[in-house]
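Complex 248.
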Amino acid sequence: MSKLCVNIDHVATLRQARMTIEPDPIFAAAEAIMGGADGITLHIREDRRHMQDSDLFRLRKSIQVPLNLELAATPEMLKLAIKALPDMVMVVPEGRNEITTEGGLDILGDTDRLHEFVQKLAAQQLPVSAFIDADSSQIEAANKCGFDVCEIHTGPYAEAVLENNFSLDHPNVVTEREHVRTAVAHVLRLGMKCNAGHGLTHVNVRGIASIPGISELHIGHSIVSKSIFIGMRQSVAQMKRTIEEASP
Ligand code: PXP
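Predicted structure with pyridoxine-5'-phosphate bound:
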């Protein structure tokens, strides 16, 4: 069964809407862990629109499951990662005007810079993950760059589910799921670890959780959204149950 890493950025999004102290992402992480989260993820964005550096250091001190730090490959973020020493660094592309991460990294188009970035993290024994589209040339490039993990972008699959009345059997959904499945197998063949995420929900997660070989699913928005109504602990527990039921 794939592990579940819960991204709690949107708890901080709500806090930052008022620039105040609640809701506190540290409490959200504790509740998520009590609901069964196997890891906690936060994204420190260049504009600090949700998580703040202080959240990272407080989480580092307070949680006892792996902490994943998502960031863009910039000198500022490199320094922050080396200072905080998370359990895994997840490199994502970052556009200033995007609402959320919009696509995978273009490793092929930025090989030298990313290779150097990964090497600097590797020197601190930090495992590094590349968030990439289900694309064989990007997977090959991630391997050459020295990434330990590929996280396959499940956004296109999630979009296909939304566009087709939540049917997991619609041919377009099946095609997108197949792209993810093929990509996972490719990542594993090259000896890297494979994770997946983005846009996964309590409804569509079954199609991805049933793919063999995915170590971790990284899920945020849907879990935080449902937590407003049923609580974080229950929202995570429900997601875990669905993953378990669907697992190969
Ligand atoms: N994985 C990566 C690399 C992401 O950037 C995000 C969004 O922050 C997620 C997973 C989680 O996506 P979602 O919030 O849509 O579940």
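The chain has a mean pLDDT of 96.
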